[in-house]
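User: I've been going back and forth on whether these two constructs are worth ordering. Before I decide, could you fold them both?

Assistant: Sure. I'll take them in the order you sent them. The first construct and its structure tokens:
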Amino acid sequence: MRFWIVNPFDNLPGEGRRPLRYWALCRALAVAGHQVTWWSSDFHHAEKRRRGQLPPVYMADDGFQVRLVPTPVYRRNISLARWRSHAAFVRNWERDARAAVATGELSQPGLILTSQPPLGTADAAFRLRRDWNCKVVVDIQDAWPETFYRLVPGPEWLRRRFAPLLFHPALCQARRACHGADGVAAVGQTYLDLAAAHGCRAPRHLCHHGIDLAPAIQRPEFRRENGLRLAYIGFMGASYDLETVLGGVAGLVREGKPVSLDLAGCGPKEVALRRFIAGQPCGVRERLRFHGYLGADELRRLLGESDLGLIPMKPESWVAIPNKAGDYAEAGLAMINGLTGETAALLAQWQAGTSYRVGDPASFSAAIMGYLDNPSRVRQEGANARRLAEERFDRQRIYPAFVRFLEETAAANLPTAGHR
């Protein structure tokens, strides 16, 4: 069967970065014997640079084809330039897809999976479905445009009333995607519920981002006198409560608490965060360390040397379960979490971390002290987190089920061979 995957954001084979969701999905589809084409972007979303080292079309070692779509650059994740870039990606993808089929470079797909975001890709896929009689699955990674409601100034009641009006065109795109898809998948139950609210009546499937499990890290029992090492990995943008994190750790260090923080990643907040650190006393500065954007091996090494993983995300970001939850769980790290809803419930269910109130330094510091004052929690909850990874995030367990969902959706009332 022929599958097309459309996502412009994730790491690609050949870049030296670790596999994320769509690389893992393409790999699983190829292992199942399918022909797979991943349509991505020639612009690297995470690093905000051109993918000049990759050819426009190439075969990955994992057995699937990658095709890069010309895409305008943008510098900030929350910007008009990003919306314009997404619109251009959609137009260029549909143009290139039609051209590749018309020239015989590619055969018509049996199923097109489009990630959401970006918005608009599903509309283009529906047009291709009309002409080619294929199936379309929408895979929801994030709540767009709902995540942007927090940008509307004023009190919460004002945002609830006016944000849907301000983002009405984008909301219509999201609703069309959910209503018109032959199937909807998502990284969290939160998004499947949102799809149902948007009018989805098609089959739905939950598949977390997941993680490629490595052997469990053998950790010694945590001792308070050795110091509590916190780790944050990921983007440093508006959705993250990093000011409270740095302020809380700095305050504890000034009080003589044995705490340190390692930050791996990049983003628009990085300059201000570095400026904050530079203004701290020497004894504080040396406990707050930036590492930049790390490769897979470096990232695993950092997490292997850490004691707790941080998820300082704002609840209004609408994030269900972030990628970093899988990374921390795979490394056997208990988590300090700012999200409410699905992530908080999962950590509570598995006793794999604790939650704090975003924007509240006292709440964040109290969460840290809960581990310093009870050191056995560090390893016990870390072991629980590893079991969570093995049961709920292991790609070897969850992605074959995702493949079966796509196979069943593609096989439902398949068109005759003459129309392929």
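The second construct, handled the same way:
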Amino acid sequence: MSESRGQSFSFEVTEAEAGARLDAFLVDRCPDLSRTAIQEDLTADRVRVEGRARPKSFRLKAGLTVTYSPGVRPEIKAVAQDIPLDIVYQDDALLVINKPADMVVHPAPGHPDGTLVNALLWHCRDLQAGSDPLRPGIVHRLDRHTTGLMAVALNDQAHAHLGDQLKDRRMGRAYKALSWGQWKLDEDVLTGDIGRHPRQRQKMAVVEHGGREAVTRYRVLEDFGFAQYCEVNLETGRTHQIRVHFAHNAHPIVGDPLYGDDKRAKGIHNLDRLQANVMVRDASRQMLHAASLHLIHPVSGQEMTFTAALPTDIERVLTGLREG
């Protein structure tokens, strides 16, 4: 297996990062590297603080310079693996799948295999790789713990056609989500440019500078007082868009480990604690599901709409709320 060439990084600790552990600081600053890789590099003395090796628990001060030279690691390659897929539709140009929770879309550091791409290469032996051999056929992504519908292009022509639909907003995607608190309006449009979080690099955020336009529409379907079940439509497709917009407006998605600061959710002081505790216990992931997908077939030009029923974990949480 070939190896990738290492690269050195230099970071200056900001005031906001003062007091952070060295290992946590590197995890935030290097989102493309796994925690395991960073821990291994700390153990191998590939990290320096002002030129000196420090333990992973070292507390940083503002103004210090951290230099990091990640170790050379095997190059990631996408290989075919016999992984079951829930196929909703398939022909020679288009595949629509219902992605389960805990499935990563494409290989990356920390997830070299067991991904949707590995499964696609097994089920679609003639899948064309296009310009990115690690993401063959991938037109749009879902987060690891988000379930639901994804369109996959089976050749380069279909990939270009579906990609254009995504850019000019002809591809429609509707989600079902359970969020904390009560929205002031039963239906509204959320905006705010989305970019990398300025301090926590593994997160995205609504930013004033350097972000990309993001538009999210929501409609409340059921109101449980301290939580609401919503339909959400994307007009743009930014990384973590729904999760970021909902959290930015103090209504994070229930069960979201990255953005779901439950104590800050509006109306949290009025919630029924017992019922909420049951809901949190059952919500082992973010309660977000890509329920509907509308597109134009890349060959026939036919308008097509696909739907996917709620997975059992979200149904279980909703049943508990309705019976509570």
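Notes on the second construct follow. The chain has three domains: 9-68, 76-168, 174-290+316-323. The first strand starts at residue 9 and ends at 12.
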